[in-house]
Amino acid sequence: MKIVLLGPPGAGKGTQAAMLMSRYDIPQISTGDMLRAAVQDQSPMGIKAKEYMDAGGLVPDEVVVGIVRERLQAEDCENGFILDGFPRTQPQADALKHVLAGLGKQLDSVVSLQVETEALVERLTGRRTCSACGKGFHLRYDPPAEDGRCNSCGGSLVQRDDDREETIRNRMQVYHQQTAPLEDYYRNEGLLAVVDGMGEIPAVQKAIVSVLQDC
Ligand code: AMP
Question: Residue 51 C-alpha to ligand 1 middle, in angstroms?
Fold first, then answer.
């Protein structure tokens, strides 16, 4: 199963991709996670990417395409993958098609998660991550037992730099301008499935699995 999850920041792509990963036993490929790891490592690419990420903009296409091209060649992608946060521009979508064609593969489905803007802002501003083990929390929907502390390991909870309200608005605008047009792109390719992402996490997962069964 070779899947792309499309949707604005906060639509639940990461959460749903992680569930699909266990269900289908295929890797989740999150360009956001890979870029954050590069920032953490302070690699030259990470240092450059951080500027764009902190501003809520997009990291240049050639950088992101390079990371994904390499990742898709790994052995664990042989039976499929879930792309989460890639592609985000038309040149990225073109590059993806090209890379997959070179590997003798093509996408099975592009699932677009639909969530209202105000709900997205609420989801993102409340999001916290454990700085030690990476576990995710939400101040309203999944709060930690102790303020600012991870339930699993006791590590301190942090907010992503780009989850602050002013940066979020910019990320939304970038999404509408550069990524939303990919819905038409994939609709024209006969690959698009639109799923309501406003419901509870298990209900959204069920809806995604149901559209994937038909492809
Ligand atoms: P995410 O975790 O998917 O919300 O990504 C966090 C940030 O990483 C984005 O706001 C961008 O700055 C950058 N990023 C992630 N994926 C891409 C991509 N496909 N193209 C360009 N920038 C990206």
Answer: 12
